[in-house]
Amino acid sequence: MHLNPYGADAVNLAADLVNRPPADAEELADRCRDAGLVLERTTTAEDLDRARYALESWEKVVDAVDEHERAELVNRMLEEAAAYPRMTDHAGSGWHLHYRDDRKPLGDVLFSLISVGTALHLAGRGMHRLRRCAVTECGAVFADTSRTGRQRYCSQLCANRDAVRRHRARGQEKEASSMYKGKSSSSVRKSITGSV
Question: What is the third-level CATH fold of 8-133?
Answer without folding.
Answer: Jann2411-like fold (1.10.3300)
